[in-house]
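Input chain follows. Return structure tokens only.
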Amino acid sequence: MTKNEPESLAEILKKFNPLKDKYVSREFQKYGYDLAVELGDTSHKSLYIKLAKEVPRPILEKARYFVKDANAKSRPRLFMWKLRELRKALEKKTETSKK
């Protein structure tokens, strides 16, 4: 599996621990929690779960890879900044295509 390919359902189920993940019932919840852990911001895990539910996954992945490759003091802050920039670019692109 390469970096850009999503995990298969079988791989996700292999990692699933019913004692640890007992409150996770949807895929976006698991993705949001894993994102919070990766960024080192577990105190705001509900924010990342909400983002995983509402924001398109390719945008989240681009922001995630941007933070992963960067050397930053505050990874969560850099993630939110990049996410905001990507969303602005997407809105601008859709505005120009409507004209």
